[in-house]
UniProtKB/TrEMBL annotation:
It comes from the Bacteria. The keyword Transmembrane helix applies. InterPro entries: YtzI-like. It comes from Rossellomorea marisflavi. The chain crosses the membrane at residues 6-24. Residues 38-61 are annotated as: Disordered. Keywords: Membrane, Transmembrane, Transmembrane helix. Residues 43-61 have a biased composition (Basic and acidic residues). This is YtzI protein. NCBIfam families: small_YtzI.
């Protein structure tokens, strides 16, 4: 009987852990706003454009 009790408790703990992890994951996805960076005044975009221009200016051998 003690083995059965331990098995039931361990399954209950596993189900509880899965439920709590699913709950927290769904909360994380719904609470975060996904936004897109604007194109205007974006320093990363300016840096990428400079690198592309430098690559184009280098002559190929």
């Amino acid at each position: 009987m003690s083995v059965t009790l331990v098995l039931i408790i361990s399954i209950a703990i596993c189900i509880l852990v899965i439920f709590i992890s699913a709950l927290t994951t769904s909360k994380a996805y719904t609470s975060v706003k996904h936004t897109v960076d604007p194109i205007e005044n974006n320093p990363h975009l300016e840096h990428m454009e400079k690198e592309e221009n430098q690559k184009k200016e280098k002559p190929k051998r």
